[in-house]
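Bench notes, afternoon.
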Amino acid sequence: MDHCAISVNAFDKLADLYRQKYMDLTQYDGSYRKFCELLRPGRARVLDAACGPGNVSRYLMAQRPDLDLLGVDLAPRMVELAREAVPNAKFAVHDCRHLAELQRRFDGIICAFGLPYLLPEEATDFVGQAANVLHPGGILYLSTMLGTSEESGLQRSSTGDEFYVNYHGEDQIIRAVENSGLKLVERRLMDSPSAASKRTTDLIVIANK
């Protein structure tokens, strides 16, 4: 079983608990609002990659009800919860490591804390794929927990379930964005939420094509 699959199995099992813990978190709303403001006006096509229970999608649709939004996640129960939370968007079980298979292009892609469940090379590849499927002028939003590769590994939740968590370096993420041909618009550092199982510094990056 690969590292991502370990995390997916845990998220599928704990999806309802995750929704209770994070669905109403407002800490990152300012950065999501910035993403919405940068999207082209009208019916912009947006991908919420690793959408979880739909917490980010719900915020985006509240800000921009005109969006044509697709959310994808590998955990089927997360997708079910997202459909319940955001009935005016579309959701599917899909691996965000294979964006080309969606056979769609987007005006915006948001991946809020999906990168911690991707290996460094997978995270870099995701950024490159995202750049490829963005329309010119499209917006990419990324957030992740900062740390070193030595900190990455299996972690246990409060329920005893295991997740494989990857910590990424700020330079690594910025380099991936710039090497993909995207232009950095904004970079923010924030403390992790109080509900987080481990206190970290979070990196938020917004770039355009």
